[in-house]
Specification:
420 residues; alpha/beta; TIM Barrel; six-stranded parallel sheet; 17 strands; 22% strand
Length: 420
């Protein structure tokens, strides 16, 4: 199947035509490609009408299942939400740590996602047994890395077993970790290997960020990530019982000044990745137990685009944070950029269309959004996954095409095992 996308506007303001051959970008031409003049068969043509075309968004930190009694989420519902939001690849983080048999747990998830997901997927392993290095090492070729769950309950215990923790770190392709304050220093008192790839996720304030960047300046292979929640929400938003319960996040919200400093860090290139931290928590769970987590797949790009527009942050920076940097950080092969030979994961965006976000339009199993009644710009019009059109906003009768184009992402080990 050969597909021609005509009149595409890239983030660098170039106007191009793009040819997709099966699942690969085969040609990018600044000169118009005429169907009648090419020496190969073009099966379908889409006129993009000078709308913005970006690489597919890679959401570097999300939870597809909540494992609660109200949980209706699965890889079908949440991948449809991804397609609506222009996300072509998500990294699913297990809600609970895996204690035994990492291989069976991960392969079961891969098989389930392969059967049901409309977009590409990858996984991290959330390991709880720091003595089980052999199994952990065995599954690294199937996952992006290992989450080190260090929190107030287990921090002292795990740090005290510094030898076991060090072995766990060495067995992992990448370490995904959230730490704050002096705990960051304590961690680096144990972790001395500067070649180990570390992703600090859900950074909530500038103090932790500067501390982490100080270790990066010493030569540690560190990437930094924050969530849309810590860019947009703060303590001042909690002005009602509804707000208090619905915008409960896993880590404490900061102040408006923390928001401002994080936006400045984005402008200055200090943050590498923005994630959704999507979790399809229902409103019932929010009001019954104030469970942390917010559904964000469908609104991630549009909310960020709207905020970047008013903060005068170029779309090229947003594209780097959502596409190129996640692909590079996780070592995904042929993803994150619009280049010949790369996977045809593409998103078409109308940057001028203003639209209302409404709870009733949310297709995630959560069926609500903290951004209800926001009027924003940056409407995802089409989402291509591996060359297949999976979402088409123009066709309101049937916006989702149930095509089996999704797959577990491939890793570029040459990129992974050099200090990038």
């Amino acid at each position: 199947m050969v597909t021609l996308l005509k009149n595409c506007l890239l983030s660098n303001n170039k106007k191009v035509d793009i040819v997709i051959d099966n699942n690969i970008i085969a040609q990018i031409s600044e000169e118009p490609i005429l169907v009648e003049e090419v020496d190969y068969r073009i099966d379908q043509v889409f006129d993009i009408r000078k709308n913005l075309v970006m690489p597919g968004i890679i959401d570097g930190f999300a939870r597809v299942k909540t494992l609660s009694s109200y949980d209706l989420a699965n890889y079908t519902t949440e991948s449809i939400a991804c397609a609506h939001g222009g996300i072509t690849t998500f990294i699913d983080i297990p809600t609970n740590p895996i204690s035994t048999n990492y291989f069976n747990e991960i392969t079961s998830k891969i098989n389930e996602a392969n059967e049901n997901s409309l977009v590409n997927f990858a996984f991290a392993v959330n390991a709880s047994d720091i003595s089980n290095q052999k199994d952990l090492m065995k599954i690294q070729e199937y996952v992006v890395g290992t989450i080190l769950t260090l929190n107030s309950r287990n921090f002292k215990e795990r740090i005290s077993d510094s030898i076991g923790l060090q072995k766990m770190i060495e067995a992992s392709k990448m370490i995904l970790i959230h730490l704050s304050g002096t705990d960051i220093d304590i961690f680096f008192d144990i972790c001395h290997d500067k070649n180990i790839r570390i992703l600090f996720y859900d950074i909530t304030n500038e103090y932790d960020l500067e501390k982490i960047l100080a270790y990066k300046a010493e030569g540690y292979n560190i990437k930094t990530a924050t969530s849309i929640m810590y860019l947009l929400f703060n303590k001042d938003h909690i002005n009602s019982e509804y707000k208090r319960k619905t915008i409960t996040t896993e880590y404490k919200l900061g102040t408006m000044l923390n928001n401002i400093h994080l936006w400045n860090a984005i402008k200055n290139g200090k943050i590498d990745i923005i994630t959704s931290s999507h979790m399809p928590v229902t409103l019932i769970e929010k009001f019954e137990s104030e469970r942390p987590g917010i559904p964000n797949f469908e609104t991630l790009f549009s909310i960020l685009f709207d905020n970047c527009y008013f903060k005068r942050i170029p779309i090229t920076i947003l594209e780097r944070l959502l596409c190129k940097n996640p692909a590079k950080a996780y070592g995904f092969k042929n993803k994150g950029e619009i280049k010949v030979g790369y996977d045809a994961d593409l998103v078409v965006i109308n940057t001028t269309k203003r639209w209302w976000i409404k709870n009733e339009d949310i297709v995630s199993s959560a069926r609500w959004t903290p951004f209800n009644d926001y009027r924003i710009s940056g409407r995802v019009m089409m989402t291509f996954v591996n060359g297949e059109l999976v979402y088409n906003f123009i066709n309101q009768m049937m916006p989702i095409r149930n095509v089996k184009s999704a797959k577990l992402v491939e890793f570029d080990y040459e990129t992974i095992y050099k200090n990038n």
